[in-house]
Amino acid sequence: MSNPPKIGGMKLHDAVTPDLVAGLYRVTSGLGILDNGSALSAPADQHSHFKVYAPRFMLDPNEITDCFPPPGAKGAFGERLPHISLGRRTLPWERRISENDASGEKPWMALLLLREDEADIESGPLTQKLPASIVAKLQNMNPIDGDPTISVLKVRELTTFRQIIPRRREISLLAHVRQVNLADTMLAGKDDDGWFSVLSSNRLPVVNLLEEENNYMACLVSLEARDDIWNIPDRGQPPALILLHSWRFASTGASGTFEQLAANLDLAPFGGGAAVTGLLDKRGRLEVEHTQHSGEKNSAKYRGPLIGVSAEAAEDSSEDISHAAAYELGRLLGIADGRFLRELVDWHRKAEADIRASLEADELASRVSFVDGLESTLTVLGIQNSLISNLNVTNLKIADIGRITLEGDIP
Amino acid sequence: MSKLNLGARLLQARMQLAVDTAPDTRPLPDYVTFQLARLRLLHDLPFRYLVPDARLLPDESARFFTLDEAWLAKLVTGALSAAGSGSREMVRAKAAAGEATERSAQLRYSVRKVSLGRTKFELAVGADKDVAPGTVSGMLLRSRLVSQWPNFSLRAWTTTDKRTIPDGVDPAELEEKRPELVVPILRMERLAPSVMLVLFDGVPRMFWLEEPHGAVQFGFTKKRNGFELELRDEQGRETATNIDVPMRLGAQLKGVVDVNGLAMKIDQERPLGVKRGSAGLAMQLLRAPARQRFEN
Lengths: 411, 296
Fold this sequence. Notes:
Chain A is built from 8 helices and 21 strands.
């Protein structure tokens, strides 16, 4: 479509409509054969069918990239319109509100914001939760397989429903497509194209100071085949809407936006800060409980790999376990990694084989030097030469020496 | 009287001598070297070993540090001794530790590339041979910023100078023009729902946190009686014009915005020539992602 924006930039689009909205399609192909203007008999028309699928009664959480305000969050969101962004850019335009709409003309989803006490969420089979007339309309647009279990949003009061439901012409204004560059976020590297469709609510989560809690639900509802919502008779019940996704958050007067949280962070070098006075010694070490090999308990000092307030080197003393802990942790992590251990053992084995081979080579090259070597190793072992003077060592081969057994006073 | 397999002891002694005098120079397997590079960037290390006491990283705090080379060297030696504690294995592990430390330090850029799936460790170990040694510094962040905006972005710079790096600067443009100002990120990972670990190659003098771009917000500014909106021009720059946000009649208290009325009102101030669509409206409602600047 268009070039991706620069890192940190974004592009906005009114809508990205799919070439085909969801539904069953029939392709008819025929062949006409003419001979000097007169038709000849041709093969019969071919009919084939295919189905374009799109989410309908529920939304896979994987389709959702982001919700604002964050689910479960508590913060000053009173000046912000809640929104949801979806990873599939055409998703909001893949179904239709009315059969009279051109395909992709209006999004079929809307994000409604309700106070917790204004609406209820129910779940049950489609045919029980929606009036028969709506089910028939849905069937008519696209056949429904069986009777799926759905969640519905039921607003309690008709006045509330009428006040918050976006007007027909507003539906399109509340959905757009965003193209961003993901290079410097955690999403980077994952298979994502940087395109999002975004649905915004038309209502601000205002804080009512008379209420103790200002709890809100943001509800993504399906408006497929629902042009009835703008023509409800005055004494009627608010219609139940199919709920695709919902999340809750609380709006407060206090701080809680990204800006406020970031500005109020407590910054200090590691080991610093107000709460830790006296916790670490001057080398940045923490006193920890330590059980010795004997089972005796005493205290020891530990400093991890992070140097903050003190750059003084750790000392290797019996009470400083920093380096011992690092060594032991390295060993355990090495053992825990099967491939690491296998390759390391293999490396040792090859090195051992190298030594054996070089010893054999030495022996072949010079018997004398081998014997010299043998004598010096015996000295290392503390075995006196006299003990082996009877042995005819010059005739030994490496392969043999593993089989020699001596009896006597050997240290 | 004791019986001794003298031959076996002789052979062992010879081999020990050989190892002691000339420890093996066979290079470590690539996988081992690469795993050591990961360990050196604190991968797989239990959190308790990094932060032995919870008070060292309280709620809503950020803590800065550099990595302790001596500690990491012990970690590497320990990992290399995993294959056995026989005397020849120990000698060999100790002898290999120095080279292993150096090689794994050179691989510090590759660890992130491999974990992002951009390259394979087999290729990286062969390629990253001329990387100069450097200090690794970092930050631990425990905050609701991490749990609620896990995709926030972070950029680190070598200078605090506001003339070089003005507040609203586009980091991509700046990076293109002055790459030497950027402190590369070696690792940025959530260790727990609200704890983020960031490692830098070098010590940044300044860094900023920015709200995720995918999650930029729509909104207004509250005033005494309702809300107002500061308009932008067609390039997205802020103008000084503020308009009152029309609310839907009968639903003011509920906070419902008259979206259509708002679009028309914006069109009166800044006509586009065509009727304003959702993108045009969104551009006006977007609040720039918050960017918080920190100096070291």
